[in-house]
Amino acid sequence: MFSYFARHLCATILLTVSVVANNYADELKDFRDGHVYQTIKSGSLNWFSQDLNFRKTANFSDDEGRSFYRNERWELSCPEGTRLPDALDWDKLIHDKFMGPRKVQNMKSFVSGSSMGYYKFEEDDVVNKRDYAAYYAAVGGVGTQVMMLDTKRGVAKLVRIEDADAVQVRCIYDRDLLAEKGVDKKTMLLTDNRDNKQYMVEVRAGKAWMKQNLAFSVTSEKQCYLEDKTYCEKYGRYYTYSEALKVCPVGWHLPDDGEWRDYQKERATLDWEGLGRGGCQDWDNYCDGAATGHYWSSTSILKNSARSWEFRRLVRDIDRTDASVYKGLYVRCVADLEE
After folding, report:
1. Strand, helix or coil at 234?
2. Closest Cα to residue 3, out of 59, 75, 47?
3. What is the pTM of this model?
4. Which of 129, 208, 227, 305 is the most interior residue, by most CB within 10 Å?
5. 216 and 227 in contact (C-beta within 8 Å)?
6. Which contacts qualify for 91-94: CB closer than 8 Å, 24 or more apart?
7. Where on the phi/psi map is residue 162: left (φ > 0), alpha (ψ -120 to 50), or beta?
8. In the 8-state DSSP scheme, what is residue 174?
9. What was the pLDDT predicted at 11?
10. Average pLDDT over residues 310-316
11. β-pairing, 207-210 with 197-204?
12. Beta partners for 127?
């Protein structure tokens, strides 16, 4: 009826895992057996969207080849670099994915391919305690606690089972939030895939900020300080407000007024030399390029104007005003690191 696997495992198992560079970790390859797992994002975590099927640590498999694990083997089962979710991890996933009017459909999608119920060892047989719920390992509790996902009612809750019972496993691992935004964590460089230009990045107020002005699509000297293209390479490009709203790379956006407020709170740590140069384009004139830098926000309060931020390098001061949407100002793109 069932195929059993070795009941006596070595205490140490070599675990090797590789994250496939496909849309920033949409899948993960377990080199222990070559199995590839699709993943889904939830908060700061990547979740396996499929049940773990590493048979060397499974207590048994069912007729369809799905693996089940007693709690004594949970910790041995997930690939290196991943881990088992605890109750808090499950709670975050539930609030992210299984709330609202589509909770039943979303839960059914999550457990698709899983076996309903869990399995009990009874003498020389294994009995499926079948119902409308799928059961998954949840570490960290007292005794053997598992997460029950009731796909009939869309209900999720922790329940306790016997130590000898076996359930399925979903593994998790931390998202590389900077890599998902195209930033190399070692160099802190963002590569804009549209033109392969690179920008230094820093994390401020919990968000990723470009430390250099955007210079995408330099097509005319008129977008540069003093109409000199060398200044576009040095300072970045001027954009009108309508251009600024849509010019940031995918996954990045023009900061709103509130984000600029958070950015500049710790003024002693600002890069005044970088922020306070390049001026602005004011119709046929230019602002002081040696001592000021002017930046768009996405916030617009008055007609034909938008909030702008001026950084004054020499006096280390900031002026926040409403600028004409037709002026040429710089853009610093920002990216959310929690979604």
Report:
1. helix
2. 59
3. 0.75
4. 208
5. no
6. 92/42, 92/43, 92/45, 93/42, 93/43, 93/45, 93/47, 94/156
7. beta
8. E
9. 31
10. 97
11. antiparallel
12. 120
- The H-or-E segment that residue 274 falls in is helix 272-275
Distance separating alpha carbons of residues 128 and 130, to the nearest angstrom: 5
Report d(CA 197, CA 210) in Å as an integer. Answer: 12
Given the candidates 3.30.70, 3.40.30, 3.10.100, 2.40.160, the CATH classification of the domain at 177-336 is 3.10.100
Task: Report domain extents, the chain.
Answer: 3-174, 177-336
Say if residues 224 and 238 touch (Cβ distance below 8 Å): yes
Joined together, the tokens standing for residue 260 give 């600029």
CA distance 131 to 117: 5
Confidence of residue 219 (pLDDT cuts 50, 70, 90): low
Q: How confident is the model at residue 218 (pLDDT cuts 50, 70, 90)?
A: low
The two three-digit tokens of residue 249, written as one number: 């790379």
Return the structure tokens found at 259.
Answer: 């984000």
Q: Please give the Cα distance from 148 to 169 (Å, whole number).
A: 12
Residue with tokens 């970088």: 274
Listed residue (191, 178, 236) closest to 212, CA to CA: 236
